[in-house]
C-alpha cells in the first residue's frame, strides 16, 4: 500500500452543464480552500512521500486561486495533472508559459470528449463544446503537452467507441480512457442506461479496439470484474481524494452526490478539523467494513452476478448513492436543480439489452 497521489476536487464552478455530471451543487458553487490543499500536500509529502497531485472539478481552472494552488503544488515538489473541459486551454497555456516551472511539473491534461462528432458530444455537453475540445487538443500538440482523451461511455454514444478511438489517434492523444457512466439521480439517467450484458459487450469492443490501435486505451475502475473482492486504487490507498468541502472521500465518484438518509458514510473526516492521517485512518476502517460486508454477502449468496460484479456500482449502492440496477437507475434522486436549471424533462429512450 503506497499513497502516491492526492486528488483534489478544486471547485464546483463550470461553464458547462453536462447531462451526466455528478456535481449537483447549490446555486452558489463552492471552491476548495487553498490553505487546506497546501496543508494536505505538505502532510502527504511528509508522511506518505506522495509525489503527484490531480485536480478535478467542476472546471479546475475556474478556482479563483488556481494559479496560486499550482504554484504551491510545484513549490512542494509535486508533479500534477488536471481534468478539463478544454474551454480555458488558451488561457492555461499562456499562464503555464509565463512561469515555466508550472508547465515542467505538469504531466498531462485530461480532456473530456463524449462523442466522435459535434452532434453527439454537444448533445451531451452543450453547443460549441466539441470544437473547444478539439482546439484544446491542438494547443496541447502545439505546446508539446501530453493529453489524454476521456470519454464517459453510455447507451447514447456506445456505438461510437471505434470512431472515438480513431479520432483520439488522429488528434495525437497519449492515451484514450473510456469511463463507465454512473447515474446522477436525474432524469437523464434513463437515456444512459445499459444492462450488465450490454456493458460486457461494450468492454469487449474496447478490448478489441485496444488490440487494433497503437494508441494506449485504458478504462478506469467501474467495469465488470471477475473477482468480487477486487481492490480499486482508492481501496488500496494509492490515491486519497479530497472533496470540495475539504472532506477525505473514498473517491471522486462519491463526492457531492446524493446519499440516502441513514446510509453509511464514505468520508473519513474534514481536513479543517482532522489531519490527513487521522482522516485516512477512518477511511481505512470504512474500507475494511465494506470488504467484510461484501465477503458476507458473497458467503450468504446475496452478492448477485449481474450488477454486483461491477465494483463501483456495488460500492455506490453500499453507501446509499445513485447506482444502476436491473430496471435502470436506483438509489436517491437529485434533490436540487442542476446549476444552470437545465431541467426540461427528456424523452424516454428504450433500454439496450
Ligand atoms: S462533467 Fe461537464 S458540467 Fe460537470 S464538471 Fe465536467 S465539464 Fe463541467
Ligand atoms: S466507487 Fe468505490 S469501488 Fe469505485 S473507485 Fe470509488 S471507491 Fe473504488
List the helices and strands and how they pair.
Blueprint: E1 5-9, H1 34-48, E2 52-56, H2 66-75, E3 79-84, H3 89-98, H4 100-104, E4 106-112, H5 118-125, H6 129-142, E5 147-153, H7 161-171, E6 175-180, H8 189-192, H9 196-212, E7 216-218, E8 239-242, E9 247-249, E10 267-270, H10 276-300, H11 311-318, E11 323-325, E12 328-330
Parallel strand pairs: 1-2, 1-8, 2-3, 3-4, 4-5, 5-6, 6-7
Antiparallel strand pairs: 8-9, 9-10, 11-12
Helix pairs in contact: 1-2
The structure holds iron/sulfur cluster (2 copies).
Please give the CATH architecture: Alpha-Beta Barrel
What is the multimeric organization of the chains shown?
A: single chain
Strand order of the largest sheet: 7-6-5-4-3-2-1-8-9-10
Helix content: 25-40%
Small ligands present: iron/sulfur cluster
Q: Which fold name is given in CATH as the topology?
A: TIM Barrel
- Beta fraction: 15-25%
Global geometry: globular
Pick out the low-confidence regions.
Answer: 339-353
Mean pLDDT: 92
- How many structural domains does the protein architecture include? 1
**What is the tally of helical segments?**
11
Span of the ends, CA to CA: 39 Å
The CATH H-level homologous superfamily: Aldolase class I
Amino acid at each position: 500500500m503506497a499513497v502516491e497521489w492526492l486528488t483534489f476536487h478544486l471547485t464546483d464552478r463550470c461553464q458547462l452543464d453536462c447531462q451526466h455530471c455528478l456535481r449537483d451543487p447549490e446555486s452558489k458553487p463552492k471552491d476548495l480552500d487553498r490553505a487546506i490543499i497546501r496543508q494536505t500536500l505538505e502532510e502527504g509529502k511528509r508522511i506518505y512521500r506522495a509525489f503527484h497531485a490531480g485536480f478535478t472539478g467542476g472546471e479546475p481552472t475556474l478556482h479563483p486561486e488556481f494559479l496560486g494552488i499550482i504554484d504551491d503544488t510545484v513549490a512542494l515538489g509535486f508533479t500534477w495533472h488536471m481534468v478539463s473541459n478544454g474551454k480555458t486551454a488558451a488561457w492555461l497555456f499562456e499562464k503555464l508559459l509565463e512561469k515555466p516551472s508550472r508547465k515542467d511539473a505538469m504531466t498531462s491534461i485530461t480532456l473530456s470528449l463524449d462523442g466522435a462528432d459535434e452532434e453527439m458530444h454537444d448533445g451531451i455537453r452543450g453547443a460549441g463544446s466539441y470544437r473547444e475540445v478539439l482546439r484544446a487538443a491542438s494547443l496541447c500538440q502545439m505546446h508539446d503537452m501530453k493529453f489524454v482523451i476521456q470519454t464517459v461511455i453510455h447507451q447514447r454514444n456506445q456505438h461510437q467507441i471505434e470512431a472515438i478511438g480513431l479520432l483520439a489517434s488522429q488528434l495525437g492523444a497519449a492515451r484514450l480512457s473510456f469511463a463507465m457512466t454512473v447515474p446522477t439521480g436525474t432524469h437523464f439517467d434513463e437515456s444512459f442506461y445499459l444492462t450488465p450484458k450490454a456493458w460486457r459487450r461494450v468492454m469487449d469492443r474496447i478490448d478489441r479496439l485496444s488490440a487494433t490501435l497503437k494508441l494506449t486505451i485504458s478504462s478506469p475502475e467501474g467495469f465488470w470484474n471477475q473477482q468480487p473482492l477486487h481492490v480499486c486504487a482508492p481501496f488500496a490507498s494509492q490515491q486519497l481524494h479530497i472533496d470540495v468541502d475539504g472532506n477525505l472521500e473514498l473517491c471522486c465518484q462519491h463526492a457531492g452526490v446524493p446519499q440516502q438518509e441513514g446510509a453509511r458514510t464514505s468520508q473519513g473526516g474534514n481536513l479543517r478539523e482532522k489531519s490527513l492521517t487521522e482522516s485516512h485512518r477512518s477511511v481505512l476502517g470504512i474500507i475494511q467494513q465494506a470488504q467484510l460486508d461484501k465477503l458476507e454477502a458473497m458467503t450468504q449468496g446475496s452478492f448477485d452476478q449481474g450488477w454486483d460484479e461491477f465494483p463501483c456500482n456495488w460500492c455506490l449502492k453500499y453507501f446509499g448513492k445513485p447506482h444502476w440496477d436491473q430496471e435502470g437507475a436506483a438509489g436517491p434522486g437529485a434533490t436540487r436543480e442542476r446549476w444552470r436549471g437545465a431541467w426540461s424533462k427528456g424523452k424516454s429512450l428504450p433500454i439496450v439489452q
